[in-house]
Write a structure and sequence with these properties.
Layout: H1 10-17, H2 21-28, H3 38-51, H4 57-64, E1 69-74, H5 81-95, E2 100-105, H6 108-117, E3 122-125, H7 131-139, E4 144-146, H8 149-168, E5 174-178, H9 185-201, E6 208-211, H10 220-233, E7 239-242, H11 245-257, E8 267-271, E9 285-289, H12 295-305, E10 320-323
Parallel strand pairs: 1-2, 1-3, 3-4, 5-6, 5-7, 7-8, 8-9
Antiparallel strand pairs: 9-10
Helix pairs in contact: 1-2, 1-3, 8-9, 10-11
Amino acid sequence: MANVRRRPTSADVARLARTSRATVSYVLNDKPGQSISSATRARVLQAAQKLGYTPNSLARDLAMGHSRVVVIAMPPFPSTFKLGQYYQQLSTAITSCGLTPLLWYENEELTASLLSAITPALIIAPYGLDTDDIETFDSLSIPHVEGGHSQELAGLEVGRAQVHYLFSRGSHTIALATTDNPLMQIFSAPRAQGARAALNEAGYRSPFELVLPIPQGGDSAELTQMVNDYLDLNPEIDAFACYNDVHAMPIMNAVLSRGMSIPDDIAIIGVDDELFDSYLPIPLTTFTLAGDPTAAQLLTDGLNMLGITADIEIPKPPIARLVERQSA
């Protein structure tokens, strides 16, 4: 039988460093308010390194009263490449502070499961929390910070910008392509509101609006037919302002299936600047957005609640920036 090496313990570190287990715990967990000499601290760190000892995370968390996990709370909407980039930037910033990020999609069952497994050090909710979750976290004294307002401002701006750009390129009859999916309302509603405002200012009191479901893997023919039916009823449309780039795809398919030219007959513009945009039959003109312009401030505020001061840098591009290609 092969020999199995025993995992070193804090008692082993204490013996090698010629100190107590309590002192080992204070040093390795960086517990504040302890008077430990630099020489003793150095001996403990050297002993731990020599033995290959790492503190037991469960025991440490029990002693602290919470874990070192920072939960990123997200509504359960479909993810995209841009959202993935945002999560990665936020997670990297959290890790740089010696904490562990955990992405959590909100719902009642998942909240109960999460809290039965860990007591988070902090909840960061870039798009806000529902009332029940806020009450639960408050009752457990779990600190939380919330965003969401900046996403509304970004949506209003980009909706306006889409319409203004299409007008500048010679479009006259612009239709909005949006969704009524409740999971996506945090994005779609302000974008549509901004676009409607710009159209109303231009004299369009009842702007054209095409409501499409979120495209899934096998429904491309159905969505294309929905767009074609809409164009049959509204042949004067010469542009679509799409709530995101995914919604632009069935519209592009429908227009091309009619033998029409993009952008000469119908221009199409999206939002998000997804990876696939350049590979569509007609490369898609779109706007790119920051995941949430207040992410760095949210994380800074949350860390301050934990007594951690850190210089957080999360890239913040302009709220709405045009990416001009060939579809508009």
